[in-house]
Each structure stands twice: as structure tokens, then as C-alpha cells.
Specification:
Chain B: One of its GO terms (cellular component) is plasma membrane. The complex is a heterodimer of chains A (306) and B (307). Chain A is mainly α and 306 residues long. Chain A has 14 helices and no strands. In chain A, helix 4 crosses helix 10 and helix 5 crosses helix 7. Chain B is built from 14 helices and no strands. In chain B, helix 2 packs across helix 14, helix 8 packs antiparallel against helix 11 and helix 11 packs antiparallel against helix 14. The chains are: A mainly alpha (306), B mainly alpha (307).
Chain lengths: 306, 307
């Protein structure tokens, strides 16, 4: 399945190298060297983290991170994985992120469908309402939500704190509510590029709104949904703030916040922290390398409309 | 005459209404309603509530008391971390806007010229974007830490080390560099997509007219990138005002790394639980961002009308 990088770039099929394909351009080598240097510079901190995580603390404490290794081992990975019970926190993250992505894509695609395909009046206002909400700084909404979630009582099977506060529901609700805006914006832009005739034909055949949405429009949006899903999963996985504020019990923290537990109050073993960081970053990096096209398409879907 | 025109209008409206059967209206009502409810409940309601709470002394436990502008007065005149935080947020904005964003654009232009290995460059520069900002904070500690950090080793300063992260005069710069590490790739990818969509014949025409490469870019290509420029501007502002994770991962936003977002969080989840006061700081943050958000929406609406 191929992904259109942007909904309506007219010249998307043109080879990228068209303007630069003239031979012996001046400064070509300079450009290559410069870009290589920048790329390595950008990779360097990550490589350093991997390198540090493989070396024992005593050695780097004595010689610094910038020294030749005497011993390399995966001990820190084992320790980071076991000591901080990473598996548990991974599961916590998945409990929030997987339903979060599915719900947000479902609701956002329906709003986008209603606005852009049914040509409803007030559609623009609706898109604006959602988009602007996504642009607010998170801290603006945190305080009242914190107070509110402390008031909402939930039965025990939903939350062992009997409150919405300190439960996955709080983080899930905020993730969905906050990300809706971005997804509506992107999907509405994407759906506008689909031919309207398909919907009209379906209406003539007597299809209802649900059929028009679920059976006709959504299948056409598959590339956009894949791109957006990848991106949203990464964002929800990377979240740090929501869980920090809305979850109190250490056992319920998602993986990024749990990483904080690896740094001690008075003493931090940076090599252990490096190993933990690498473990936590690995899924997003793997997702990125495997689904690079989807990922980048998701980011650019909303920005470069024709 | 007038009769036919009203009939026509009404007919169209009625057709619009008849387009939806009863079942359709239920589907629309439930799903649209649900989405709108969630948005109001999670985003807009709390935003308004924040503004309201900022005029009270609410602490989560005792009764709410109206205190007028007291919270703002305290923040502006007495709260020692407030002005440093504002200054840091604005520095952050300036650094991302004047250094990281132009650098991202520059890299995008270089890569778009069609150099060899462009995919490698693209991926390498983009990779930090997929990292959690908290992890960026942790990695920054490896590079900048005083005794074992890579930077001091690189500069050969092990004997006379600089405390890049601990020194409150310089640590904000180091953290901004770490933030820029991530921001540059983001900007680059947006501009790369934008540049690919630029009509190549425009560039050819400019070249035929004798324009130099620089003239072509600034006079022809850059203006056509306007939609991307607006998006990048909004992202830059929002990232700068939202900045939180990196400093919180490094030292919980103290000792030279104060930010407005940290102050809000500290005031509500700290022991003090000064919700009213925290809200006042959040409203300051809201006002700072609102100007840019409104500009963006006006642009969007205008584009919408031209569509």
C-alpha cells in the first residue's frame, strides 16, 4: 500500500532530484560534508546513550563517557528491566495508548466526515473549535481537570481509587480529548481531497449516513488513518505530563514517567538511566524505522494542503 | 419573482433536511455529539474554568473564595520564580524561532536539492523527533553532566569541568540546545514536504529569467511555502510555551530552569495545592499563546473561504 505524502501536492510524482540533477554543481562536496556532519551530530547523543549503557558505572565515573571501553555488557539492561519492572509499565502504556488511538481515530474521522463530506452548515466553526483546542498549552486545562477528576467517583471495577483521579480513565479521556483536535484537522483536510461523486452515488443508491461513513469513506482514508495512527501512538506513548499529574500510584504510571524512578533522590547512576532510556526509546525508534513513510506522512498530511 | 426565489431556498433547505432519515440523524447526533461533548468537557470547559479559578483561592479542599486579582498580583510582584520563568519561556521561543526553525528550513533546502544519501540524512536528523521529551532530557544529562559528561571530555576540561546542567547561568541554554535537537528535525520534515509540492516550473522560469539560486528561493519558492510557514510558526510557538518534559526530567524545573508550565504543575500537584494561584499562571500562559493561535485561525478561515 502506498501512501500519498500529502493530500494534494500537484507535483508529488516529480523526482526530488530534478533541480539538482545538473552535474558538477559548485559546492556539492561541501553540501555532502556538511550534511554528513550534521547527521552524525544529530545521531551522536543517541549513540552516546547506547555506548554509556553498555559500560559499568565505575569505569565511566573514572574515565568519563568519552573513553575507550574496558568492558562492555548488557548488565544495565537487565537491571533496568528488572529493577524498575519495565514490563508492567509497558503494559500500563499500552492500556492507555491502544484504546486511545482507536477511539480518537474513530471519533475524529466521523467528525471530519460529517464536516467535509456531508457539507454541514457550521462545519468550519466545528473544525476551528477542535483545532484551536489542540493548540492550547496543556497546563491551561490541567488545573480544573485535576479538581474535576477528584470529584468524579467511579465503581471499583473501573478504578481501585474509586475516583477518576489516579485511574487510567483520566489519562485516556484527556489523551482522546486533547488529540481529537489535531486528528479532526488532518482528516478533514484529507477527506476534502476525495471525490465527492462517490458519496453522491451512494446517496442515490439509498445509503445512510453510517454506510457512507463506514463502508465508503473510511476505506478511502486508509493511508491517512495509518499515518495518523502511527503518529498518535508515538505521541501517546511518549506522553509524560498527563500521567504525572493525573496518576498518583506508582504502579499505574506509564513507561516514560516510570523512567523517573530510575533516577534516585541523591544519587543517579547515569549509565542505568541511559539503559532505561534506550529501552523506552526502542519501540518508538523501531516503529519509526519500519513505518517511516507513514510517520512522516502523518505529520505532513495536515500542513501541505494544496 | 420573489416568491420563486423563496420557494427555491426553502426547497433546498427541505431537501437538506430530508437527506437524513431518522436513523441518520441518530447516528449523527450520537457520534458528533459525543466528540463535541468530549472536546468541551476536556478542553474548552477546563480552559474557561481555569480563567474562573484564577480569581479564587481554591485549594482543592476548603471552600472557594473570590480574591479578585490577588493571585495575579502575587505572581507579578511576590512570587520569585515568576519573572525568571517568563524570561525563560521567551528565550525558549526566541531560540527555537531564530535558531532551530531557520536551521531546519536550511537543512530541508539542502536536502531538497537532491544530494546523494538524502534518505540517510533525512532519517538521522528526524530521528530525535520520535523520542519522548523526557528521554531527550535524560540524554541531555549524559552529554552535559559535570563530572562524566561527554561535552567536558570533548573540550578537554576534565580537570576544570564546567557544570553545564547545574550552573543556573548557563543551564537553560544547554536545555534549549537539547530542545532544538528535536525541534529542527520536525521543522525540516514539514518544509521538505512543502518544498516537494512547489511547482518545479516556477523555479525553471525564475532561472530562465536570470535569477540566482538565492533570489529564486527567497523571491519565488519561499512565498509559495506560506501555508507551511504558518504551520511551522504555530508549532514553534506552541512547543516553546508547552516546554515542560525536558526540564522536569532533568531537575524538576528548578535552579535556573524555571518555566511557566513547571510553576503551574508545581502549584497544583505540590504539597501546597494552590489551585487558584496555579490557574492564574496558566492564564498568563494562555494569553501568551492566544495571540498566535488567533492569528493562525484567521489565516485558516481566510483560506477556507478561498477554497
Amino acid at each position: 500500500m502506498s501512501v500519498a505524502p500529502a493530500p494534494a501536492p500537484t507535483k508529488a510524482t516529480k523526482p526530488v532530484s530534478a533541480p539538482g540533477s545538473r552535474p558538477r554543481r559548485r559546492g556539492r562536496w561541501g553540501t555532502q560534508i556538511f550534511l554528513t556532519a550534521v547527521s552524525l551530530g544529530f545521531l551522536a547523543p543517541l549513540l552516546l546513550a547506547v555506548y554509556a549503557s553498555l559500560r559499568p558505572y565505575d569505569e565511566t565515573a573514572e574515565e568519563g563517557y568519552f573513553s575507550l571501553p574496558k568492558s562492555l555488557s548488557f548488565d544495565y539492561y537487565e537491571q533496568a528491566f528488572n529493577d524498575s519492572e519495565m514490563t508492567k509499565y509497558f503494559v500500563n502504556t499500552l492500556i492507555i495508548a491502544v484504546p486511545g488511538v482507536l477511539i480518537v481515530l474513530f471519533l475524529a474521522s466521523f467528525v471530519a466526515f460529517a464536516v467535509s463530506r456531508l457539507r454541514m452548515r457550521g462545519g468550519i466553526v466545528l473544525v476551528m473549535l477542535f483545532t484551536a483546542g489542540n493548540l492550547l498549552p496543556q497546563q491551561v486545562i490541567i488545573t480544573p481537570l485535576y479538581a474535576l477528576f477528584n470529584q468524579i467517583e467511579l465503581p471499583y471495577w473501573m478504578s481501585d481509587s474509586y475516583l477518576m483521579y489516579d485511574s487510567y480513565w483520566a489519562v485516556l479521556a484527556v489523551q482522546v480529548g486533547f488529540q481529537l483536535g489535531f486528528c479532526v484537522f488532518v482528516l478533514a483536510n484529507f477527506m476534502r481531497t476525495l471525490p465527492q461523486e462517490i458519496i453522491e452515488a451512494a446517496i442515490v443508491d439509498g445509503a445512510g449516513v453510517w454506510t457512507q461513513y463506514w463502508r465508503i469513506t473510511l476505506p478511502l482514508c486508509r493511508p491517512a488513518l495509518a499515518a495518523l495512527g502511527t503518529l498518535q501512538f508515538t505521541w501517546m506513548y511518549n506522553d509524560f505530563l498527563w500521567a504525572l499529574v493525573f496518576i498518583n500510584t506508582g504502579d499505574k504510571l506509564p513507561i516514560t514517567s516510570a523512567l523517573n524512578n530510575l533516577s534516585g533522590q541523591y544519587f543517579t547512576d547515569h549509565n542505568l538511566l541511559a539503559a532505561g532510556s534506550v529501552i523506552v526509546a526502542a519501540p518508538t525508534i523501531i516503529v519509526f524505522l519500519l513505518l517511516q513513510r507513514h510517520f512522516i506522512a502523518g505529520l505532513t498530511l495536515g500542513s501541505s494542503k494544496g | 419573482m420573489s416568491l420563486t426565489s423563496t420557494r427555491g431556498d426553502r426547497g433546498r433547505r427541505r431537501r437538506g433536511a430530508r437527506r437524513f432519515t431518522r436513523r441518520d440523524r441518530i447516528v449523527l447526533g450520537v457520534l458528533l455529539g459525543l466528540a463535541i461533548l468530549i472536546d468541551l468537557f476536556i478542553v474548552w470547559g477546563p480552559t474557561l474554568a481555569s480563567i474562573g479559578l484564577s480569581f479564587t483561592n481554591y485549594d482543592g479542599v476548603s471552600d472557594i473564595g473570590w480574591v479578585g486579582l490577588d493571585n495575579y498580583r502575587t505572581a507579578f510582584t511576590e512570587y520569585p520564580q515568576f519573572w525568571p520563568a517568563v524570561r525563560h519561556n521567551l528565550m525558549w521561543l526566541g531560540f527555537l524561532g531564530l535558531v532551530a526553525t531557520p536551521f531546519g528550513l536550511f537543512l530541508a533546502v539542502l536536502i531538497d536539492r537532491g544530494v546523494r544519501f538524502s534518505r540517510f540524512y533525512q532519517s538521522a536528523i528526524y530521528l530525535p523527533v520520535v523520542l519522548s521529551l523526557a528521554i531527550v532530557g535524560f540524554i541531555a544529562q549524559l552529554v552535559f553532566s559535570r563530572d562524566q559528561g561527554a561535552l567536558n571530555a570533548l573540550l578537554g576540561r576534565q580537570d576544570n569541568p564546567i557544570d553545564w546542567i547545574g550552573d543556573p547561568d548557563i543551564n537553560i541554554w544547554m536545555v534549549m540546545i537539547a530542545a532544538a535537537w528535536r525541534h529542527t528535525g520536525y521543522v525540516m520534515i514539514l518544509y521538505l514536504a512543502g518544498l516537494k509540492a512547489v511547482d518545479a516550473t516556477l523555479k525553471e522560469a525564475a532561472a530562465i529569467d536570470g535569477a540566482s539560486e538565492r533570489q529564486t528561493f527567497f523571491r519565488v519558492v519561499f512565498p509559495t511555502l506560506r501555508p507551511v510557514n504558518i504551520i511551522v510558526m504555530v508549532i514553534t510557538v506552541i512547543e516553546a510555551l508547552r516546554a515542560f518534559d525536558i526540564v522536569y526530567a532533568i531537575n524538576r524545573g528548578r535552579n535556573g530552569l524555571e518555566l511557566l508550565s513547571v510553576l503551574v504543575t508545581d502549584n497544583i500537584i505540590g504539597e501546597a495545592s494552590r489551585i487558584g494561584f496555579g490557574s492564574a499562571i496558566a492564564v498568563v500562559l494562555l494569553v501568551l499563546s492566544l495571540g498566535f493561535v488567533v492569528t493562525y485561525l484567521v489565516q485558516e478561515l481566510r483560506g477556507e473561504k478561498n477554497r
